[in-house]
Amino acid sequence: MPYAVELFFDQRTDAAVRKLWKWLSDEGISTELASSDSIPHISLGGFNDLDGMQTAQVTETLQSLAESAGSFPLTFSGIEGFVATGVIFLAVEPSPALDDLHESFYEALGDLRHHLWPLYAPGTWVPHCTVAIDLQPCTRSVVNEMRRALGGHIELPWQLMVERMGLVKFRPIAHQVSFSLGEVKV
Q: What is the CATH number of domain 3-180?
């Protein structure tokens, strides 16, 4: 099963994203996130599979990063989509703190970075918070419609704090570990 390293938000933001998931589910647009054990997040990395030693290495890496990194602010700046994969997401405004954490994570993986999905490599990674998945067919006009519809349910730009990071096995979601980030860094 695949694994993801995820960054989790403050309670206010968690509740706002869950509200979007519920609305999308109630409308019959995208039900998976609202009905799963997923937590609103930004994925820092993904792997096809990890054995016990690799899981331990990722866990140690996350614990070390969490101890050295503080919680930090981010901004959701808009609603966008990955048309090819049918994903609608909250776009993240560029952030040196997020970029630094991603780079530290990538470097700390050592040889495991060869197992990281290529979309999570530095220079390729697009940080985002998914609100709808598996939309088929998905076109630019669908993304525009979703932007208008979701815009009535969240006020953007949205200020948030990244407070925790964890390792998740998915579909179905199984939370492996979670670590609080240290003191606030602004």
A: 3.90.1140.10
145-161 pLDDT, tens digit per residue, is: 999 999 999 999 999 99
Q: For residues 98 and 139, give the distance between their C-alpha atoms in angstroms, rounded to a whole number.
A: 29
Could you tell me which residues come within 8 angstroms of residue 133 by beta carbon, excluding any fewer than 6 positions away? 30, 32, 33, 85, 86, 87
Q: What is the CA radius of gyration of the chain?
A: 16
pLDDT for 74 beyond 60: yes
Token look-up 């966008």 returns: 80
Separation CA 170–CA 44 (nearest Å):
15
Does 157 sit behind a cis peptide bond, omega within 30 degrees of 0 on the bond before it?
A: yes
Q: And the tokens for 109?
A: 């993986």
3-class SS at 50? coil
8-state DSSP, 83: G
Q: Where are the domains of the chain?
A: 3-180
d(CA 64, CA 185): 17
Whether pTM > 0.85 for this model: the answer is: yes
Proportion of the chain in helix, strand, coil states, percent, rounded to 5: 40, 30, 30
What are 127's two structure tokens? 């940080």
Give the ranges where the chain is alpha helix by DSSP (H): 11-26, 32-35, 52-68, 96-108, 140-151
Structure tokens at 61: 């890496």
